[in-house]
Fold this protein.
Amino acid sequence: MSFYDNYCQNKNFDLEGNFNSVSSASIQNILLQDNLNIAQFVALLSGEAQNYLESMAQRAQEITKRNFGNVIELYTPMYLSNYCDNSCLYCGFNLNNDIKRRTLTLEEVEKEAQFISSLGLKHLLILTGESRLKSPVSYIQECVKLLKKYFPSLAIEVYPLTEDEYTQLVAQGVDGLTIYQETYDEQLYAKMHIGGPKQDYRFRLDAPERGARARMRNISIGALLGLGDWRKEVFFLGLHAKYLQDNFPDVEIGISVPRIQPQVSDFKPICQVSDKNIVQIILALRIFLPRLGITISTRENPQFRENLLSLGITRMSAGSITSVGGHTLGEADQEKAPQFEIQDKRSVSQIKAVLERKGYQPVFKDWLYL
Amino acid sequence: MEDVLEIAGKKINNRLFIGTGKFSSYQIMKKALEEAKAELATVALRRVDESSKTENIMDYIPQNCSVMINTSGARDAQEAVRIARLAEAAGAGNWIKIEVIRDNKYLLPDNIETLKVVEILAKEGFITFPYMSPDLSVARRMVDAGASAVMPLGSPIGSNRGVKTRELIEIMVNEIKLPVIVDAGLGRPSEACECMELGCAAVLVNTAIAVAQNPPEMAQAFAQAVYAGRLAYLSGIPAAGKFASPSSPLTGFLREAKKS
């Protein structure tokens, strides 16, 4: 059994039909409920629900406060390598893109670690492009060994691994796994991923489950919004998160809803996702899954990030740089092309000040090596 | 009247214990602890950051308030034991609230794993406070294993639903000789008062204070409610009348018969 079975069962779910049957009364009724079923989640994604964003926001805020309190966890990404074996149409690391590539040496990784930890950050997300050759698991393990000295919590966002490989990394001190399906639509997935190992939809889809079996503490999933119809993508994202929560109750499940941002290639989003849509998505997911972690990255602009804070966000990145070695390498050594452009370029201390002003405690440390 | 809760040689006057998560800032948390005159606060070791470039939660615990480390984040007995040992090694003392949660949806505790932790830590000299789903049999085993108190939940953490487990807690209060401390789910001062009226030794509150509009005032309100409930309990609450006193009693004929 895997989420793939669940996906197949729901592949032809009549979203439109369900949306059409949603009434104003049904939305109001849903907002009074505690345990939402799938149909009620779908109703919150409907066009009709757009008229109830304020009520949904009130409900979402109340749920978030009770479950998570007035705190926001901060983390930052560290890019170890941008070599990639895939050609994904929307990505700046696409192997066909003519960008400068590099993999950090361990000395460089340590320098970055020293710099990032000097900012007070304790939760690190390490990323690589998807190249088993240029950033093999053995290399990631070496980096983890080194980074553990600086960070009490380490998560990885790398190509999908086998369960054994995840188990090895967990044993070394990795506690979090981030892996986005990009699009849940299997046919669209094939169109977007035209070369490389990432073409294997199923191996990627099952990665969170392999990570959970390997005893990861936190697993974060996501869909890259702008590829398929967002309502459909978020429907499957919600189902996927629920499936993981149901089957791995001791793992903290989180989601992220990144939107396509400009990068090196001239890929334009296929579907538009407005700010209003993002708000509806976050609210619907929060009300559907009260204990779900929700991350908002620096892909979004400062003002929008601030406005989303009180709607259900639990984690945000700060001080992000999305290029390899971006914190410490000199201009000449740095490859210029990041995976995507970040919108919120404020420093960690600026983000901290904003959170405090908004009545949130910035949490820098929320785990420890055992 | 002196009324002191004594646990492992420590005398505690204030029976409101406060959890330190979820506050919007450490300053507000500190103010809440001060306003409530809290004598015991729980702190998650996962949040303690001695090396912090920013702030360490331990610096915001008022001087006259003791710290009990909790094992928040532990998914099994082994992890909880490790957290407790790390806490002691870090100088955070040996009072441990044992929290083992394998259920991220409702945050309900795993009584079986929790019992294993008590068995190990009590032998090592820790003062253990197991957080548990109210269950008399398991509570008895906790006592046998050397727990210093038991902490049944009123309702799920953060739910603010009050004492939904009242019947089970009442039984525990009647049968367990150790302090019974209701932890989790209390949403308002009246519910804390209710626990104290039932004879609980103390209550632990976090969410309801931390996410209130004015946490320091809410902390004070809880402290007063806990005091009121305790005082009522000690004063001997008259049993609520279950039957009416009818003017024409059903057994009146017995007295009629006597007269004749």
Chain A has a mean pLDDT of 92. The CA atoms of residues 328 and 369 of chain A lie 26 Å apart. The radius of gyration of chain A is 20 Å.
